[in-house]
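User: I'm putting together a teaching handout on how sequence relates to shape, and I'd like one worked example. Could you take Acetyltransferase from Termitidicoccus mucosus, show the sequence you're using, and then write out its predicted structure as tokens right after it?

Assistant: Happy to. First the sequence, then the structure tokens directly below it.
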Amino acid sequence: MSFLGIIVRLGQGLASRWRNVWFRALGVRMTGYVWLREVSIPRQWGDIFLEKGTSLDDGVVLLCSGPSSTGKIYIRGAYLNRYTMLDAHEKIEIGEGCMIGPHCYITDADHGTNRDIPVSKQPMRCEPVILERGVWLGAGVRVLKGVTIGEGAAVGAGAVVTKDVEAWSIVAGVPARVIGHRKG
């Protein structure tokens, strides 16, 4: 690595450490060091729990809404790539060793669909989202409310996951469907 590369890397490390201090002071719970690039956590900091080994790249947004509760967003040593957004009203849990590609969106809620009431006036319908250990989401994946993605599953780029995915499955498409299984 060049001298300039070392200086850039050192600056990024110091900035990440500063963000660790800043977000802890705001109330984000962290166990150990978490790699934080330029992330956005706009509110409800106490609802977020990040375990040691978690890495959040540039543009990641952790957004909590609704009544406050501990662990609304819980990330266990996973990597979230650039411009990924977690939008939690009840619970989004990301397991250890998960890799989430760029521009993914994960939400645990949606609005009602009663045609007699404007969508903006309808209550949120919430169901937890869980990504078990070692899940891999390709670029641009959407994971919707109530979904559990089993251990080691892989989700193809651009997929929209609307139903549970079995462990070690490979899914793709809109809506996502099984196209194979990972082999040992």
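A couple of points you could highlight for students: The chain has one domain: 3-181. The first strand starts at residue 29 and ends at 31.
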